[in-house]
Amino acid sequence: MNTVLFDLDGTLLPMDQKLFMDTYFTALAAKMAPYGLEPNTLMKSVWEGTRAMVENDGSVTNSKRFWDSFSGSLGENIRKLEYVFEDFYRNEFTITKRNISTNKFSKECIRVLKEKGYTLVLATNPLFPRIATYHRIEWAGLNSEDFELVTTYENSSFCKPNLNYYKAILETIGKKPEECIMVGNDVKEDMCVTHIGMGTYLLKDCLINSSEEDITAYRQGDFPEFMEFINDLPVLDKITAPNNYIRQEV
Q1: How many CB atoms lie within 10 A of CB 148?
Q2: Contact 154, 61 (CB under 8 A)
Q3: 199-203 contacts: CB < 8 A, separation 24 or more?
Q4: pLDDT band for position 250 (50/70/90)?
Q5: From CA 70, how far away is CA 64, in angstroms rounded?
Q6: Residue 89 and residue 183 in contact, taking contact as beta carbons nearer than 8 Å
Q7: Whether 119 contacts 245, CB under 8 Å
Q8: For residue 3, which of 166, 157, 134 has the smallest C-alpha distance?
Q9: What is the residue-wise DSSP string for 41-89?
């Protein structure tokens, strides 16, 4: 194993998902109200766009899939307001930080893994634009440069728990499933990688198990226990574990 994929929300960035989403929608509705968008209609259209991304078949990016759905619900003129949404993510979106806490172990675990020579990927569900994702990376006390790849709705064409999402990551970074481990808090969305032969670590600090699946078979623990796990990992030999992927900004 030479590559670690990390989920973000609830993993490297502790959060109450419901509080986060409630704050997010309240702020977005306030931003768009001056443009005549009624809150309930806006929320319904955003959820429809989100569902369209989750059901994406890989033929277009999640960004295009979202805006095709969004404009289908609200009319083509909504595309003229895309700059307003971008401004929202650049500014008002930061209010959601108040429902988020920083995990003191997040920065340390990334530091240790990098020093040991592991390839790191931020495999956060690509439902948000790059700017919103990078905000959340910063809130976790991390830097986008810590990762060889960060998935966003601009550079992805699948979503969790679609296994094609993970296969696309492997293809992008040039890795095989057996070289990787997925670290996440959502049993359905993160642990599904076992079906393609990838290792897993289930972080239980903000555990999500919506289907009440039996989790006893997964390697698991809280963040201090995960730190023990990575501290025991070997230092990689760069000659035998090369990384041929060249990081590119999206």
Answers
A1: 21
A2: yes
A3: 199/1, 201/226, 201/229, 203/10, 203/11
A4: very low
A5: 10
A6: no
A7: yes
A8: 166
A9: HHHHHHHHHHHHHHT--SSS-HHHHHHHHHHHHH-GGGGGGHHHHHHHH
DSSP 3-state assignment of 108? helix
In the chain the beta strands, taken as DSSP E runs, fall at 3-6, 119-122, 149-150, 180-184, 199-203, 220-221
The amino acid at residue 187 is V
Flag whether pLDDT at 238 surpasses 70.
Answer: no
Q: What's the whole-number mean pLDDT along residues 183-192?
A: 98
**229: exposed, middle or buried (C-beta count within 10 Å: 0-12, 13-18, 19+)?**
middle
Q: How far from 125 is each of 34, 76, 104, 210, CA to CA, in Å?
A: 30, 26, 23, 16
Beta bridge partners of 220: 202
The pTM of the full predicted model, rounded to 2 decimals, is 0.92
What order do you get walking across the sheet with 199-203 strand by strand? 149-150, 119-122, 3-6, 180-184, 199-203, 220-221
**Hunting for tokens 């990992």 — which residue is that?**
233
